[in-house]
Design a protein that fits this description.
Blueprint (H helix, E strand, L loop, with lengths): L2 E4 L6 E4 L1 H10 L2 E2 L2 E2 L9 H9 L8 E4 L6 E4 L9 E2 L1 H4 L19 H11 L2 E2 L13 E5 L7 E8 L5 E10 L2 E4 L2 E10 L2 E7 L5 E4 L8 E4 L8 E4 L2 E2 L5 H8 E2 L2 E2 L1 H13 L1 E3 L7 E9 L2 E16 L2 E29 L2 E5 L2 E4 L2 E5 L9 E4 L8 E4 L2 E2 L2 H18 L20 H4 L4 H6 L38 E2 L6 E2 L3 H10 L8 H10 L7 E4 L6 E4 L8 E3 L1 H7 L2
Parallel strand pairs: 7-8, 9-10, 10-11, 11-12, 11-13, 12-13, 13-14, 14-15, 15-16, 16-17, 21-35, 22-23, 23-24, 24-25, 24-26, 25-27, 27-28, 28-29
Antiparallel strand pairs: 1-2, 3-4, 5-6, 17-18, 19-20, 29-30, 31-32, 33-34
Bound molecules: zinc ion (ZN) (3 copies).
One zinc ion (ZN) binds next to helix 2.
């Protein structure tokens, strides 16, 4: 029987339906002969996501020393964070063993308190990166990539800068959710594009700029919802020989004029938009979701089956509340960053490479299994709070801890946000669920007052920088710039200057942080709203809020209108 609950955090009402209850039963761990039922969640799906995201620092980097080698390193952990950090290569070395930090479980104290004490002493990895990257300092959550800078959540990237959530790209700069593309700049949600700038929701487009929702277009500028067109400006055909001059008229110093932008916005307002982005799904709800089946409230996901409330999660089955990764996962619940084959992983953060039967673990990797409340173990099994037990001892001890956690109200809850090694404003939770400093402190969350950037140290004013990129001297890479929005200081690296020159783009006058936030604001929030199709009035679930002015069509009407 479906149950209605009130969120313990935001007080909003939410339903736990029959399918969700059946899932909780299916995923409940069996230890020895006994099945240990998971309770229905006490927090609504959004507050659960906020809590998971408090454990994720994507892009705030600090300089600190590796506690093993004393070498100066780049890390997602601030030097004030009360944790021990090893450079990621040292972390993977045999010079230390996480089991050495093992301790007895104390039944007179809450579990999370004991976990927090363990977490403060076991070495953590400086960055969430796997080996196999080349020349990729200042990147995080990156694998199999080369020559990337300030890139996050990237696989198989080459010469990419200031991007997030990208796969298989070359020379992408300032891109967000871009795949299989080359020479792209300021693109969002684009696939298989080449030489494309300032575009969103495009596929197979090339040598174009300022496109929105276009497919298979080339040499187009300022177009919306066009398919298979060449030499179009503001959705109108132009003579190919006139095209370069007409485009140049819309740009000044590589920047789109206000008049041209107004034209594009008007086209966007009057062109139909799809209710959701995705393809080849069966019985799904969400946005940016493809090749999925029976999956609900999922965003930025591919190849899921029987999943719900998942984000940036791929190739997995029977999972709920998972943020990040997947790729061969089964039976996962309330996890952040768990992937590369896993089975039955509950309430874990950053566990990967063939892990199974993990509960309440952080950073346990490489064929770790049957672990409870452990930190930083590799290839271990039958440990509790990093202490090694025999299988029989483990099977006897874990049910007692679960019973204890039922009494303390901890069983079935993900790590509370106040346990995070990151301050709230360092974590991605702040990006999606912003809190003021006072609000964060009142919720017992920590706040970083010394963010790793400066203001007022600029060595050049924007009036001194030529607007034409060809006239910008090489010495600009030695200058300290000032962000036009947040006033933060930043630099331009030489690899970046070469890219702007090659693409004839203006030097950005906002820092990379503000540029990222602007792109993020151009995507809909990960919330589904009931809205009526602007054509047939059929009710549908879409991430376009009812207050958004776009003309949103249901799938069928969209297909009929734009082909
Ligand atoms: Zn809530
Ligand atoms: Zn800024
Ligand atoms: Zn319709």
């Amino acid at each position: 029987m479906a149950i209605h609950k009130q969120c313990a955090s935001c007080q909003a009402g939410f339903d736990v339906d029959d399918a969700e209850l059946a899932f909780l039963e299916k995923i409940s761990p069996r230890i020895g002969a006994e099945l240990h039922y998971l309770p229905a969640p006490t927090h609504c799906p959004r507050c659960r996501e906020q809590r998971r995201l408090a454990m994720r620092n994507e892009r705030i980097y600090y300089r600190r020393r590796c506690a093993l080698s004393a070498k100066e390193i780049v890390s997602i952990y601030s030097p004030d964070s009360p944790v021990v950090v090893y450079e990621h290569k040292a972390w993977y070395s045999d010079e230390w063993d996480g089991a050495a930090y093992g301790r007895e479980f104390d039944f007179s104290r809450p579990f999370f308190e004991q976990f927090a004490e363990l977490h403060r002493v076991v070495p953590l990895m400086s960055l969430d990166v796997k080996s196999g990257n080349e020349n990729c300092d200042y990147t995080n959550l990156i694998s199999e990539s080369r020559n990337c800078y300030q890139v996050v959540a990237c696989t198989l990237g080459e010469d990419c800068m200031y991007c997030a959530f990208i796969q298989r790209n070359r020379s992408a700069v300032d891109c967000f959710f871009v795949f299989d593309s080359e020479l792209c700049y300021e693109c969002i949600d684009c696939y298989r594009c080449y030489l494309l700038t300032h575009s969103q929701y495009c596929q197979n487009c090339s040598e174009s700029g300022y496109l929105y929702n276009c497919r298979s277009c080339a040499n187009c500028f300022g177009c919306v919802s066009l398919v298979n067109k060449q030499y179009h400006i503001f959705n109108q055909p132009v003579a190919p020989q006139q095209y370069p001059a007409l485009v140049a008229r819309c740009l000044s110093g590589g920047i789109c004029s206000q008049e041209a932008l107004a034209h594009i916005l008007e086209l966007r307002r009057t062109s139909p938009q799809r209710a959701y982005a995705g393809l080849q799904n069966e019985n799904v709800t969400g946005d940016h979701i493809s090749y999925c089946k029976n999956s609900f409230n999922c965003f930025d996901c591919t190849y899921l089956e029987d999943c719900r409330h998942c984000v940036w999660f791929h190739k997995s089955k029977d999972c709920a509340d998972c943020y990040g990764w997947g790729l061969g996962g089964e039976l996962g619940y309330e996890n952040h960053l768990v992937g590369n084959t896993f089975q039955r992983v509950l309430f874990c953060d950053s566990c990967w490479e063939g892990v199974s039967n993990l509960m309440y673990c952080r950073l346990c990797v490489n064929r770790s299994n049957n672990l409870f409340g452990c930190v930083g173990l590799r290839g271990k099994e039958y440990c509790v709070l990093n202490k090694q037990y025999s299988k029989d001892e483990y099977v006897a001890l874990v049910p007692r801890i679960i019973a204890h956690m039922r009494k303390t109200g901890e069983w079935g809850e993900f790590f509370p946000a106040y346990l995070s090694p990151f301050c709230y404003n360092e974590s991605v939770a702040h990006e999606y669920y912003p809190l003021s400093r006072a609000e964060a402190l009142s919720r017992n969350l920590s706040w970083q007052d010394n963010m790793p950037y400066t203001t007022g140290r600029e060595t050049i004013s924007w009036a001194q920088v030529p607007s034409d990129i060809a006239s910008v001297p090489d010495t600009i890479t030695r200058a300290v710039l000032r962000c036009g929005s947040c006033r933060r200081n930043y630099r331009t690296i030489s690899q970046e200057l070469l890219f702007y020159r090659k693409m004839n783009l203006a030097l950005p006058r906002l820092c990379f942080h503000c540029r990222h936030l602007a792109r993020r604001a151009r995507r809909n929030d990960r919330i589904l709203h009931v809205r009526s199709c602007a054509h047939c009035a059929e009710k549908m679930l879409t991430s376009f809020a009812p207050t958004q002015p776009e003309l949103v069509y249901c799938e069928q009407c969209y297909r009929d209108a734009v082909q």
